[in-house]
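Appendix B, record 7
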Amino acid sequence: MLLRRGDRGQAVAAVRFALSSLQKLPALDPAMDPAEVEFDRETDAAIRQFQQERGLIVDGIVGPVTVRSLTDARWTLGDRTLAYTLSSVMSGDDVMALQIRLAELGYNTGRPDGIFGPRTDACVREFQKARDLPEDGVFGSDTYRDLNRIGRMVTGGRPFFLREHQNLRQSGPRLSGKRIVIDPGNGGDDPGWISGGVRAADLTFDIAKKLAGRMVATGMETFLTRGAHQNPTVEERCGLANKVDADLMLSLHIDGSTSQLASGIAAFHFGTDSGATSSVGETLAELVQRELVARTQMTDCRVHHRTWDILRLTRMPAIQVELGYLSNDAERARLVRDDFRNTLADGMLVAVKRLYMDGRDEPHTGTFTFSELLAHEESVRGA
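Structure tokens (predicted):
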């Protein structure tokens, strides 16, 4: 169910209550009938402000992602007991704070994502063992009190940054054997943006197939999250990536706008304003952005961090790439050309190669060809 300006009812009242608890709106009059609460201009403005602060799409529409973020934002560390439960996994800002705090103490929580999963559970148990507490993985009042008694062992920077990059370096510069998930946006009953009879879902699927073919030629193992006429949920797309234990995930999208002037390429990685960031995802997003802009000369809409589920629910570095605007006549004319889609696939492949080269003997951005990349793979293989 989507809520927007002009709607009324108990669901709107719940949104207003959440916003007031976050000091975004004044509290409702207790005597007011919840069924009569309106999604008015003030509610719309507060939702947009909240979406912007949380790195969500700022559209003033309250859907599942915004509802989840409103719920997560309610919690601060110590407000409730936290534990790993298979039936209903706990998430929230308090979980994110716990993960960051444990990482500062030297525990390998992985990328802080606000989800109390198996790795967070293991770190809580390790902490409890070190502090002579019951090793039950339950972060309750006793564990919280002990956590606040000791100082940080790691301060400044991002403790998980070094771990991610160390894992990257240990995997070596060869592409062969790397497992990559490619996620063509939209699909099935969701065509994405449509302009001039062209569907975004069809273009992203074609680009994904071109990219997968090139990656297979280098020895990589690739997985597409959907077929030509399928539209898996975000959870299913991320679930596939986690199931195959992928090294990277690239989600491909083509945008649209009510303004024909909107144009350009942008890349996104997981990250929050508090500094919890997928460092390898950020590096890959920057490499993809630079490579595509250099090869296409399209507007550089830069790299951004977001908390979108497609980036948050994956256990490996993941990025989302916006490959232009179908609503822009010039960009649509380029996107429908087969050679241009080949250029996009080449650029993303080279960016992945640069990630694993890690600055070693790299050609200039935008100049590394597919044949040169294959030759480099052969030289590395023979070294």
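Remarks on this record: The first helix runs from residue 10 to 21. DSSP finds 14 helices and eight strands in the chain.
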